[in-house]
């Protein structure tokens, strides 16, 4: 027996003035960015003042939103039809990290931090920096919205991480890493006065230091210590900010939308993510099932279509065309049945998750009309 | 068509945009390379257990184990490389650090070294793969190496150049010492004709653009680009460029042909719409194909496996890859 999922009321969610943050998440390659942009446009055209934070949009999608340069600030999108307003921005991870340093480190330390090779390596490559910075930017957008009134709804796309969960874990991981034991110990000699425990710790530490020096070459450790030392003033900040972000995500007015394609990997990730959100008491609004292939002639079975195609296939253009169309239909029926099975399996394991579907389009979405259509399909008004 | 990789190539690095099936392509390539009695190691480096899921087995440990038999009697082994384990193994092999190694672990130094400096993590991952490439055969009479080829399911296209360019990444951090030396040794293998980086894509705008960017970046970094693997290629049911064939007039004639099968005019219209969408899709795909040709690399097309990838599907893709490798038409 299959369970029919609840229908996800997209318009209800977007037009509810209490909704202030919508987070689109899901594994890579499922169309998160497009979904986020389509939701943002729809919300704006229904009267909301919206800002959409995109992480890594396709070039043409970015252009359609007027995002021709990466300047880490929202720009108003032209061509919105309706009473609302739409702003869009692309995340510049490096710039966001630099800004945190500039705003929170001692002024005389800023240069030192920005030029340290470890800072450069960490800020560009730490697995999770992008996720952390996306959340940092979300906090900033929230504050700007509250102060200026430019927007009252923030729609966030999440980074194309290998797993949808990275984005929830990264802020914490970066926070706990910077709070880590090694870092504490590295800074200890500068701070502490002595004591037995510390001496024991320090002797263990010096063995570790020696090993690290041997392995990495001295000089490197010195760079690390300088880096950690100069970051000290920001330490509390990282942890605190990670926690603030977490609370923001749990707050009333935040809604998560999990985006998935009707494929096993994407739906498995979506199921994990659904469970994880529940465990963290973060509010899941529903699942967006993207690129679904509907059957347009439901009465015609794949077998019947193929049998007819077999009979018709002959040496005349019309017959070949008729056979081609029937084969195409048979293929669609099978694809659709498979997608349906996968979606049903998801709903059976997550019966309370409401679902909205976007049928697959034959071309890529690269203008506002395309986004508008995707929004209409999502809301089920087409 | 030129060969997709040089005959001396033994390290195949498979990248691709998320969602294009790079793990599938890597696994199929491993099967293809093992065909006819070869021994191939398939490695993953992202801790994702994608290989285990694909072959429907328990999660892979940090240990090389046989995972599939190739057509004509080859064997594919699989390994999930874990950077922490690789570091400890490396320390043990070269430094016999013993107590100091434990201290490193206790103080979170390994976590530290592999997370604060991603270049360092990458050099451990690529280093392990290179070690497998160079490992000599003790138990294989007549073979020079333990593995005839190593296939890596690598990070996605957007990160691949950075991931492989370990020398540059590490140089800024470790100016002297073993890690620096290791990075240089790895880089020598990666930039040699022993290595080829293959890019997996599908015939869509964004993945193709990313593939072209990736090829350029790899070239600029001096890393050898192998083939472009176009995955999930659909069967064409209507000839390309004959969109006019589903004209209103043609639709009417087809409706007459389909009526005896109990398909009414409205249903024929729905079929025609499907046909037009298909034709549009095909012509868009043709545009992407031409764009890929511009990269100047051999392109290998892998068919869409209807019903999802299983072991049978993998063998089917492997057949397409080995046909391309030997220069036969698939």
Provide a descriptive summary of the structure in words.
The complex is a heterodimer of chains A (382) and B (330). With 382 residues, chain A is α/β, with parallel strands linked by helices. Chain A has helices at residues 10-15, 32-45, 59-64, 93-104, 110-115, 117-125, 129-148, 166-178, 181-191, 196-216, 220-231, 235-250, 264-279, 302-312, 317-349, 368-379, and strands at residues 21-25, 49-54, 75-76, 85-90, 153-157, 254-260, 284-292, 355-359. In chain A, strands 3-4-2-5-1-6-7-8 form an 8-stranded mixed sheet, with helices on both faces. In chain A, strand 6 (254-260), helix 13 (264-279) and strand 7 (284-292) form a beta-alpha-beta unit. Mean pLDDT of chain A is 82; it is low at 190-198. Chain B is built from 13 helices and 8 strands. Chain B has an 8-stranded mixed sheet with strand order 3-4-2-5-1-6-7-8, sandwiched between helices. Chain B is elongated. The two termini of chain B are 12 Å apart. At the A-B interface, helix 6, helix 9, helix 10, helix 11 and helix 13 of A face helix 4, helix 5, helix 6, helix 9 and helix 10 of B.
Summarize the model shown.
Chain A is an alpha/beta fold and 382 residues long. Helices cover 57% and strands 12% of the residues of chain A.
Topology summary:
The complex is a heterodimer of chains A (382) and B (330).
Chain A: H1 10-15, E1 21-25, H2 32-45, E2 49-54, H3 59-64, E3 75-76, E4 85-90, H4 93-104, H5 110-115, H6 117-125, H7 129-148, E5 153-157, H8 166-178, H9 181-191, H10 196-216, H11 220-231, H12 235-250, E6 254-260, H13 264-279, E7 284-292, H14 302-312, H15 317-349, E8 355-359, H16 368-379
Parallel strand pairs in A: 1-5, 1-6, 2-4, 2-5, 6-7, 7-8
Antiparallel strand pairs in A: 3-4
Chain B: E1 11-16, H1 22-34, E2 39-44, H2 50-54, E3 65-70, E4 74-80, H3 83-95, H4 99-106, H5 109-116, H6 118-134, E5 149-153, H7 157-164, H8 166-171, H9 178-190, E6 195-201, H10 205-220, E7 225-233, H11 248-258, H12 265-293, E8 299-303, H13 311-325
Parallel strand pairs in B: 1-5, 1-6, 2-4, 2-5, 6-7, 7-8
Antiparallel strand pairs in B: 3-4
């Amino acid at each position: 027996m299959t369970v029919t999922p609840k229908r996800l009321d997209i318009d209800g969610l977007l037009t509810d003035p209490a909704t202030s943050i919508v987070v689109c998440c899901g594994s890579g390659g499922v169309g998160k960015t497009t979904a986020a942009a389509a939701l943002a446009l729809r919300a704006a055209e229904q009267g909301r003042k919206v800002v959409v934070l995109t992480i890594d949009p396709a070039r043409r999608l970015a252009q359609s939103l007027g995002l021709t340069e990466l300047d880490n600030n929202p720009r108003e999108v032209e061509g919105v039809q309706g009473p609302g307003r739409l702003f869009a921005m692309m995340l510049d991870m490096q710039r966001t990290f630099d800004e945190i340093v500039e705003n929170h480190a001692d002024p005389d330390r800023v240069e030192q931090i920005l030029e340290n090779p470890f800072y450069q390596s960490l800020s560009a490559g730490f697995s999770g920096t992008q996720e952390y910075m996306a959340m940092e930017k979300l906090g900033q957008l929230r504050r700007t919205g509250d102060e200026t009134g430019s927007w009252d709804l923030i729609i966030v796309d999440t980074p194309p991480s290998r797993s949808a969960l990275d984005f929830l874990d990264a802020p914490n991981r970066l926070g706990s890493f910077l709070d880590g034991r090694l870092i504490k110990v590295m800074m200890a000699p500068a701070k502490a006065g002595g004591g037995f425990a510390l001496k024991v710790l320090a002797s263990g530490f010096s063995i570790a230091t020696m090993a690290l020096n041997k392995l990495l070459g001295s000089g490197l450790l010195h760079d690390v210590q300088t880096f950690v030392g100069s970051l000290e003033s920001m330490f509390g900040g990282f942890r605190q900010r990670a926690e603030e972000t977490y609370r923001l995500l749990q707050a009333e007015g935040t809604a998560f939308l999990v985006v998935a394609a009707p494929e096993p990997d994407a739906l498995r990730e979506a199921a994990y993510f659904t469970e994880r959100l529940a465990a963290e008491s973060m509010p899941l609004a529903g699942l967006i099932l993207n690129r679904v292939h509907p059957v347009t002639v439901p009465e015609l079975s794949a077998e019947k279509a193929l049998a007819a195609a077999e009979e018709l296939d002959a040496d005349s253009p019309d017959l070949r065309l008729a056979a081609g169309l029937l084969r195409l239909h048979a293929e669609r029926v099978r694809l659709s049945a498979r997608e349906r099975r996968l979606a049903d399996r998801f709903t059976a394991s997550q019966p309370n998750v409401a679902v909205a579907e976007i049928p697959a389009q034959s071309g890529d979405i690269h203008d506002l009309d395309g986004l508008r259509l995707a929004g209409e399909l999502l809301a089920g008004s087409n | 068509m030129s060969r997709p990789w040089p005959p001396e190539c033994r390290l195949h690095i498979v990248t691709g945009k998320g969602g294009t099936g790079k793990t599938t392509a890597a696994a199929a390539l491993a099967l293809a390379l093992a065909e006819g009695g070869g021994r191939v190691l398939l490695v993953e480096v992202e801790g994702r257990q994608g290989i285990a899921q694909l072959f429907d087995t328990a999660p892979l440990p940090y240990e090389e184990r046989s995972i599939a038999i190739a057509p004509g009697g080859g064997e594919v082994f699989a390994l999930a490389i874990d950077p922490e384990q690789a570091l400890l193994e490396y320390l043990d092999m070269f430094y016999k650090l013993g107590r100091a190694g434990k201290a490193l672990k206790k103080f979170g130094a390994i976590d530290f070294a592999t997370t604060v400096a991603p270049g360092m993590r990458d050099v451990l991952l690529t280093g392990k793969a290179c070690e497998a490439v160079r490992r000599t055969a003790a138990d294989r009479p007549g073979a020079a190496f333990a593995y005839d080829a190593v296939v890596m399911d690598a990070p996605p296209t957007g990160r691949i150049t950075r991931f492989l360019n370990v020398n540059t990444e590490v140089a800024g951090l470790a100016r002297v010492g073993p890690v620096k030396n290791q990075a240089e040794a790895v880089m020598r293998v990666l930039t040699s004709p022993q290595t080829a980086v293959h890019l997996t894509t599908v015939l869509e705008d964004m993945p193709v653009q990313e593939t072209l960017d990736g090829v350029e970046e790899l070239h600029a970094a001096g890393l050898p680009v192998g083939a472009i693997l176009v995955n999930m290629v659909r069967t064409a049911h209507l000839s390309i460029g004959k969109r006019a064939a589903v004209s209103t007039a043609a639709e009417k004639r087809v409706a007459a042909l389909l009526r005896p099968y109990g398909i009414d005019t409205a249903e024929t219209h729905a079929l025609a719409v499907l046909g037009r969408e298909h034709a549009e899709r095909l012509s868009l795909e043709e545009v992407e194909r031409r764009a890929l040709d511009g990269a100047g690399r051999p392109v290998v097309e892998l068919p869409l496996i209807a019903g999802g990838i299983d072991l049978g599907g993998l063998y089917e893709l492997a057949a397409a890859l080995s046909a391309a490798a030997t220069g036969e038409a698939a």
